[in-house]
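Closing statement on the zinc ion sub-project.
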Amino acid sequence: MKRAIKLLFVCIVGMFAFACGGGGGGGGGDDASWEYVYQHNAQYYSGYTWRWNVSTVRVAANGVDSAVVSSAFNRWSSSSGLGFSVGSGSSGNIVVSYGSLPAGVCGRAIAYVSSGRIVRGVITLRRNPETNCGYDLRRLITHEAAHSLGFMGHDSEGIMTPNVNSDTITGQNYGFFAKLYSVPPLTYVPALYKEKQYGKKPAPPRGTRVFTEY
Ligand SMILES: [Zn+2]
């Protein structure tokens, strides 16, 4: 009994330093995950993480089927721990609508970032993706949703391929959001994995950064 209390105490204290039982720069797999977070998020922000810092993200399905929007966003819920409240209209943290896009582009996600926090997202979709893009609306929104939640760049397989030619959320995709949302905004990622060499931490970016991804 006493021992259990002591263990619990160590765990609570540990939570302030590391995610208890999780992070802390453990084995090679953990390093690989942090490197992936670096590649797809932190490298665009002087090495620091940027992410939503709310428990529930309000998503406005503005002229887009809200059931499909909800279904797509919720595919990222278990990995990120984020809740998504989807309504119709134009008021929300992330607004999803149809609009004109450059030739050959099926979707675009813009994230506005201030002090490591995504403060606003705008997703624009090509109409009738089944005809114009060769895959369905839910798949397109799932892909753009990932960008609007902090994923930059693309993968060679799965839902985050440039042409979205798979509907699969890969283990890496899942791990990306699990890791990114396990630490506060403005966590300096190179300090979290062994392979990354770094000297002095740079200052975090100032002002508002706008990230656009397709
Ligand atoms: Zn993309």
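The CA atoms of residues 117 and 200 lie 23 Å apart. With this model delivered, the sub-project is considered complete and its resources will be redirected to Aim 3.
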